[in-house]
Design a protein that fits this description.
Strand order of the largest sheet: 1-2
Strand content: under 5%
Low-confidence stretches: none
Mean pLDDT: 80
Oligomer: single chain
Distance between the termini: 34 Å
Number of helices: 1
Largest sheet: 2 strands, antiparallel
Structural class: little secondary structure
Order of helices and strands: EEH
């Protein structure tokens, strides 16, 4: 599974259950980069019900998929823990 953290406000916040409205980002999750680009093309854009958005500019994200990753920066999460692994059973 892959995900993307779009620019703040690119994907509308309407209908999202907030944890912290000033920090939360919404974005697509997919099995590959092409899926994410396709989903982002669908969900990104101006929403008149989202007051957090300002001058939203979308792009044809799938057109940017050239296969060349030179100069791109990305992160890899090597271990995900929900905090339960360190709890002792009683």
């Amino acid at each position: 599974m892959l995900t993307a953290q779009p620019t703040w406000g690119l994907v509308p916040y309407t209908g999202v259950f907030p944890i912290e409205a000033t920090l939360d980002h919404t974005g697509p999750i997919g099995m590959n980069v092409r899926d994410i680009a396709l989903l982002l093309e669908v969900v990104a854009g101006k929403d008149p019900f989202d007051p957090r958005q300002y001058e939203v500019k979308t792009k044809p994200y799938t057109k940017a998929l050239s296969g060349n990753v030179k100069g791109l920066k990305f992160g890899i999460v090597r271990k995900v823990s929900d905090g339960l692994a360190h709890r002792k059973k009683m």
